[in-house]
Amino acid sequence: MANKQPLIRIRKKEDRSFLEKILIKVIFIILALVISALFINSVTKLNPLSVYSSMFKGAFSTPRRIWITVRDTCLLLSIAVGLTPAFRMKFWNTGAEGQMLIGGLMSAAMMIYLGDKIPSALLLVLMFVFSAIAGAVWGFLPAFFKAKYNTNETLFTLMMNYVGIQIVEFFVDVWDKKQSHSVGIINGTSHAGWFPSIFGQQYILNVLIVVLLTAAVFIYLRYTKHGYEVAVTGESESTARYSGINVPKVIIRTMLLSGALCGLAGFTEVAGISHTISVETSGGRGFTAIIVAWLAKLNPLVMVIYSFLIVFLNKGAVQIASDFNLNEYASNIIAGILLFCILASEFYTGYEIVFRHKEEQ
């Protein structure tokens, strides 16, 4: 009896044109809006158009809200970009939360202990450098054990998050017991270690730093020898070794970079946004950034779009809850539907569903 093909199977579709991919995304976005509208009308009895208008208002209704949306987009983007070198190497770095926290902790410590001793410009430079170093150290530890003992990097980096949380809690408790070193708002009077306003705008420096880092990582991965080694190692360690690439060196070097970039995300959060440190500083962004990185297929430039989209959905969910007195879960369901359909569109741009023909039955 001849073997029959399965009734339904999935196969790769690599020959879709750019226009086809755009069309698929547009179709799924429309589908997401329709499903969300049905949910809104059936559960809340609200006008879906009013709800969508509220989402837009949550992100763009005032110049301040626009800047906060841009600011939060840049912060999420910086973490996603930090994860990219490791993911390109197929080193599953789930430790961005801890790396960001440690970088932020280093920035906070320097603001507390050096804020009134050195010029603010020099302090910012030192905070930038040492936050990157702190994040790099946090990335080095799992990379070393992976390179030397082939440990599971997913579990190792994940557990490092919890270690980072406990270290931050320890120092926050120590500093809070000293009146002069309270971490409520660090250097609230002198603003030492705070990003300065540029052209009267508070968050321009946040944007400039993240834009430069994103461009630098894109160039590094696509046009440098190190980027080539990262890609080859990710495709096949055996091929990399056969090509003369020192795989353990590439693993450690790449995770030093990945950790440093995530540490700098902590620096921008502490110096440019919250001006404080706590276990909530990362706010789950380290895990959200994984979604951003994969949706963008590890392209740092495309990550700009998806970072903005996720921030927009979050802002919109908050505004919906406020405007229509919905609970947090209902508004998050709407955001979840939109995000799920976007994820589905990514699947259909790369794969297709094939049904068995009658002659094959």
Q: Mind explaining what this structure looks like?
A:
This protein has 361 residues and is mainly α. It has 2 domains: 1-45 and 327-361, no CATH class; 63-310, ABC transporter involved in vitamin B12 uptake, BtuC. The chain is built from 13 helices and 2 strands. A two-stranded antiparallel ribbon has the order 1-2. It starts with 7 loop residues before the first strand and ends in a 6-residue tail after the last strand.
Q: Ranges with pLDDT <50 over ≥5 residues?
A: none
Strand proportion:
under 5%
Helix and strand content put the structural class at mainly alpha
Instruction: For the record, give the distance between the C-alpha atoms at the N and C termini, rounded to a whole number.
Output: 12 Å
Mean pLDDT over the full residue set: 90
Q: Could you name the CATH topology of the largest domain? A: ABC transporter involved in vitamin B12 uptake, BtuC
Overall outline: globular
Under the CATH scheme, the architecture of the largest domain is Orthogonal Bundle
Number of helices: 13
